[in-house]
């Protein structure tokens, strides 16, 4: 569904239908899901909570679509400030819905210390919600205007598709054989960044898990054994793919670079895993930004080594933070 006139009626219609069904049938699914949770010993009602979040998400999606249509009808569909305000509202409401329905608490650190220069953010990718969480953290906490390198599959989300294409995001085709064209598109994202702007990319390219980590390192052994040996120390992150990150950083002349890592979102990539996580207790996540002034970030081939070293450092920090969290919640 590469054409918007084909894709959008289907995606918007599908979400609208889901929103109506979840609302109309809410007395039924609430009782059935609650009984199912209690019978199976899930006292925190994870299935019920997830369905409640789905209800809120679908209606927020429809609110976002309606607001985007209103902007179009008054001739402001190309007004980036208006669309950024809509994105900031949408992200904040979704995070609020996640808190209310699932009890998910999110702590943000370092967003107020990102300075006032243009910025490139290189983020850890571990869950379905990384782009949403970073948009909320950068928009609501740092007061920035984020632009993203997004996989084209996210066009199936109506709000990301409509509003996301009005903003200076780039929807990358990960299956494209025209690699240079995709890198040019990524680089174009970072040209002429203003002081409020931030270009965001997730260098791992996909959500991290043990299987993907092993597969990535094994493939790397054939073309770069030394790098594969170095990256085999990773426990939580995937080896970064440097081409896109390098293109973005080098195109953002004068921009500082920030690394974004987090804990608390690992494994939240399927319905079953999310439900098990909610059943275990009230989820808590930490999102951390670390600023690296531009003068400390090398260019060219040296950037690859710099990125690898930073990624190994982030992996150690993620491991340490997870260990501290488990220690606080273990029985004394």
Question: Care to describe what's here?
Answer:
It is globular, with a radius of gyration of 21 Å. The chain has one domain: Glycerol-3-phosphate (1)-acyltransferase (3-Layer(aba) Sandwich). It has helices at 4-24, 26-39, 46-73, 80-102, 130-141, 158-166, 179-189, 210-223, 225-231, 242-251, 271-280, 301-329; strands spanning 105-109, 119-123, 145-151, 170-172, 197-201, 256-263, 284-292. Helix 6 links the parallel strand 3 and strand 4 (170-172). The protein has a seven-stranded mixed sheet, sandwiched between helices. It is of the alpha/beta class and 332 residues long. It is 57% helix and 13% strand. The chain has twelve helices and seven strands. Helix 3 runs antiparallel to helix 4 (80-102), helix 4 crosses helix 5 (130-141) and helix 4 (80-102) runs antiparallel to helix 6. The model has no long low-confidence stretch (mean pLDDT 93).
Provide keyphrases for this structure:
Glycerol-3-phosphate (1)-acyltransferase, 332 residues, 12 helices, alpha/beta
Helix and strand composition category: alpha/beta
Strand content: 5-15%
Largest sheet geometry: 7 strands, mixed
Q: Please tell me the total number of domains.
A: 1
Helix content: 55-70%
- Total number of helices: 12
CATH architecture: 3-Layer(aba) Sandwich
How many strand segments?
7
Low-confidence stretches: none
Shape: globular
Strand order in space, largest sheet: 1-7-6-2-5-3-4
| Gyration radius from CA atoms, angstroms | 21 Å
The topology string of helices and strands comes to HHHHEEHEHEHEHHHEHEH
> What is the C-level CATH assignment?
Alpha Beta
């Amino acid at each position: 569904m590469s054409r918007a006139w084909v894709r959008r009626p289907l995606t918007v219609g599908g979400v609208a239908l889901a929103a109506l069904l979840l609302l109309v049938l809410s007395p039924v699914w609430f009782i059935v899901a609650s009984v199912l949770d209690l019978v199976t010993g899930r006292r925190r009602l994870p299935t019920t909570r997830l369905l409640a979040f789905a209800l809120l998400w679908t209606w927020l999606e429809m609110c976002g679509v309606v607001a985007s249509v209103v902007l179009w009808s008054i001739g402001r569909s190309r007004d980036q400030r208006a669309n950024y305000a809509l994105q900031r509202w949408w992200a904040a409401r979704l995070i609020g819905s996640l808190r209310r329905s699932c009890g998910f608490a999110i702590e943000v650190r370092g967003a107020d210390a990102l300075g006032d220069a243009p910025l490139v953010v290189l983020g850890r990718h571990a869950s379905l919600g990384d782009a949403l969480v970073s948009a909320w953290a950068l928009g609501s906490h740092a007061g920035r205007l984020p632009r993203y390198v997004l996989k084209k599959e996210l066009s199936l989300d109506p709000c990301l598709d409509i509003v996301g294409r009005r903003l200076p995001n780039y929807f990358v085709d990960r299956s494209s054989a025209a690699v240079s064209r995709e890198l040019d598109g990524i680089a174009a994202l970072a040209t002429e960044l203003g002081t409020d702007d931030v270009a965001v990319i997730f260098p791992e390219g996909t959500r991290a898990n043990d299987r993907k980590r092993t597969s990535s390192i094994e493939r790397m052994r054939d073309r770069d054994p030394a790098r594969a040996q170095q990256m085999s120390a990773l426990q939580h992150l995937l080896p970064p793919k440097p081409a896109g990150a390098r293109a973005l950083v080098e195109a953002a002349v004068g921009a500082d670079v920030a690394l974004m890592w987090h804990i608390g979102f690992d494994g939240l990539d399927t319905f079953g895993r999310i439900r098990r996580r909610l059943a275990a207790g009230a989820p808590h996540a930490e999102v951390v930004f670390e600023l690296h002034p531009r003068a400390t970030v090398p260019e060219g081939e040296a950037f690859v080594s710099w990125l690898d070293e930073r990624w190994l450092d982030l992996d150690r920090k993620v491991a340490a933070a997870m260990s501290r969290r488990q220690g606080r919640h273990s029985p004394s």
